[in-house]
Amino acid sequence: MTLPMILRRRLIAAGLAAPLGAAVAAEADAYATARRRMLAEVEADMRDTARSTGRDRLDPRVAAAIGKVPRHRFVPAQLADRAYENRPLPIGHEQTISQPFIVALMTELVEPKATDRVLEIGTGSGYQAAVLAELAARVHTIEIVRPLGEQAAALLSSLGYRNVETRIGDGYLGWPEAAPFDAIVVTAAPDHMPQPLIDQLAPGGRLIAPVGSRFGIQTLQLLRKDAQGRALTRSVLEVRFVPLTRER
Predict the structure, then answer these.
(1) pTM listed for this prediction
(2) Distance CA 174, CA 63 (A)
(3) Known catalytic residue: 98?
């Protein structure tokens, strides 16, 4: 038995510390409360932006996923107490975990169904992939920054997301051998909608991406491919994302 455990047992016996199980349960309750508060803020943002997005509330399935995924596991440990703030947070390597509202909105707009195959470009911390995995049959996710991609893959596996497949590589090129996809979510900003991703979208599929330059205006764009394979795009909302990085 380690010294800290011996000390904890002595403190418990003396009535000076709560049993470890109680402390863990209290922490879990605190995070669950924080997720509910975050979800309420996300729903408020949905109502505030409804004129632009066309959605004034989350689909119940999307709301349940946002309310379930433990966002505190997807941020650096020193930021865990800020994990349920409705804002982006740094995750290292000049990358961020997106604002919960944006994650929820992008998920909502691609309308993931239980039978869908989804492609995500920009795994980052793995949080968006986890949300999608709660809703779709299969998620393929690509990250160009190897340490981030490997860390996210290990975390997603440890959390039991068996329907997520990860890859290190250039997301602009997509994942041709796994195509076609029913939905594609791009979590970093290209300066134009990548043609390889459009090509890998199934008829009837939805693609969401922030499009624009690093220093200019970026617009969240939703592309739908009709049954004849024609791509129809509309602008949703002005946003700010890190740029989509390409292999050189």
Answers:
(1) 0.89
(2) 28
(3) yes
